[in-house]
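User
Class, as today's exercise, I want you to study this protein, comparing sequence with structure tokens, and judge whether sequence predicts the tokens.
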Amino acid sequence: MQEYRRSCPKQLKRKEMELSISFFYCMPLFDVNYSLKIGWCQSPVDLAKLTRLAGPRWIEIEATALEHNLRAVKGLLQPPTRLLAVIKADAYGAGAVEVARILLATGADYLGVTTLAEGQELRRAGITAPILLMSPLLPEELPQALTDDLTLTISSRSGAEAAAAAAATVGRQARLHLKVETGLQRTGLEPGEVVPLAREMRCWPVVQLEGIYSHLAEAAHPGAARRQMECFQRVLMELEGQQISLPLKHICNSTGLLLHPEMHLDMVRAGTLLYGHFPYQAPRRGLDLKNPWQFKARILFIHDVAAGTPVGYGGDYVVKKATRLAVIPVGYADGFALTPVSRPKDLNDLARHLVKTVLAYLGRGGGEGTAVTIAGQRAPVVGRVGMQLSIVDVGHLPEVKVGQEVQLDLRRPTASARLPRVYCREGQPYLVRTTSGEMVPVLSSAGQNLAPGAGI
């Protein structure tokens, strides 16, 4: 890839490059058995080597951007406030296992996921840091969660009793956080239920009450956030009055973290900020976040077409003049050109949706799936986007060749988990998560690991 070639001067010989590599990827906190190894020489053939491993399309994740973002967010916190890094939904598409390693090595104190499967994936990868499951589990899931030493969220009395029963069955103490319903109306104990239940649970030897939290429904609206915080604080004061101590109290998400420093408490839960995005209507607080994500592919085929030629399924698009068309190995099965559609909140929101739809129809929306970037130049996607192949008009780019790299826009929530993830440090790849989920460290031909020591 262009970045890789730029990092290796043309005059540097292969032997010299191999001798200059002195990185070692040490991971004392993790016990991970990688199933594959591959040689990687920093030379103009890097793109070919990458394709042999990852295929002709992949998502690049830059480790230094994630590290930068976490340090920037931590800089907003006052000790001893801890930071829980939210890595739900495969770390927002970036790949949960490696992102967890990066963030923990950079200073994250806790990890947060939604499902048991997400927590299990991290434990199977050898990650031993505390992990909070932020959703209630079914009773059948509880024994495995406790066996994997995952922290449970308790949102009801029945959930607490089921957790205690599972802890007695597996023979290990359950570490719990109580969830308080203060306004989101999703999951949680009603405020009046918390103190009686906590007082009772304090006598259960099979549970450890480690924390209590709530979730801001309208963090960007100060009045609504303040009402939720006041409700939460009343519960905390009642617990304190009963001499019930829960070490970790938390309510702030990314938006709350930025807008309400007085609500940081013992821990904050940061998600979208760590991945380089600012929440809607949230101030920047001086943060200069970096985007760790790039979606790339290589051109598979190029051919000439005459004016008037229909292109793609249904012949919906007809070229107006003779041009060249390039085929890229990306389609809607990968999440390309897919846009999540939510119910409009009001008439103004509906109008915005309609305008975006009309612009996309006219090819002028500038959104995902309408154009790609080749050698710094934009090229339009033409015809219908296929399941795994799409067509790009490159008639204005005469130098474009088969095998050339293309950069694409892709919404992270819609990105297929089967797209390979290539983890880089300052542009140099050091690890690949393949389509099958195998984690493949990138080695030099001398057998050295190219990943810089990250202190993990």
Remarks:
- Residues 1-45, 452-456 have pLDDT under 50 and may be disordered.
- The chain has three domains: 2-55+420-443, 63-275, 294-414.
- The domain at 63-275 is CATH 3.20.20.10 (TIM Barrel).
